[in-house]
Automatic annotation (TrEMBL):
<dbReference type="InterPro" id="IPR029068">
    <property type="entry name" value="Glyas_Bleomycin-R_OHBP_Dase"/>
</dbReference>
<dbReference type="InterPro" id="IPR004360">
    <property type="entry name" value="Glyas_Fos-R_dOase_dom"/>
</dbReference>
<feature type="domain" description="VOC">
    <location>
        <begin position="1"/>
        <end position="126"/>
    </location>
</feature>
<dbReference type="Pfam" id="PF00903">
    <property type="entry name" value="Glyoxalase"/>
</dbReference>
<protein>
    <submittedName>
        <fullName>Catechol 2,3-dioxygenase-like lactoylglutathione lyase family enzyme</fullName>
    </submittedName>
</protein>
<dbReference type="InterPro" id="IPR037523">
    <property type="entry name" value="VOC_core"/>
</dbReference>
């Protein structure tokens, strides 16, 4: 349903390093980057995705108030665990370790971290085991 989305970050280099470290755990990578010069000086960003198609963007260019929640699909529970470990190693704040969240449904296996700007970033697998 969503083609792509973007969030504003306060420290582009720090956030890019953070997302570069965690995205491989769920099979994604930085696959595009645009400079301020390319966008007329109003935006600089990095796009992450699978198969060369960016679907999640971070960038500078606008103030953000409040905290966003973004959940990334993980192919299996081991990938959720790897995402959480990579995020913690990259400096995330724990916001819920990997585990079943049965209040959503019996197979909801997720992990939650806060990124450098305090956004609630999740990896989730809906498959049993």
């Amino acid at each position: 349903m969503i083609d792509h989305m973007g969030i504003s970050v306060s420290d582009y280099a720090k956030s890019k390093a953070f997302y570069d470290a965690i995205m491989p755990a769920i099979g994604a990578e930085r696959c595009m980057e645009v400079t301020a010069e390319e966008t007329g000086g109003t935006y600089e960003g990095a796009g992450y995705g699978v198969g060369g198609k960016p679907s999640f963007w971070i960038g500078i260019g606008g103030a953000l108030q409040g905290r966003l929640h973004v959940a990334f699909v993980a192919p299996d529970r081991a990938s959720v665990d790897a995402f959480y470990a990579a995020a913690m190693k990259a400096g995330a704040t724990d916001n819920g370790p990997p585990g079943i969240r049965a209040h959503y449904h019996p197979n909801y296996y997720g992990a939650f971290v806060l990124d450098p700007d305090g956004h609630n970033i999740e990896a989730v697998c809906h498959r049993p085991e």
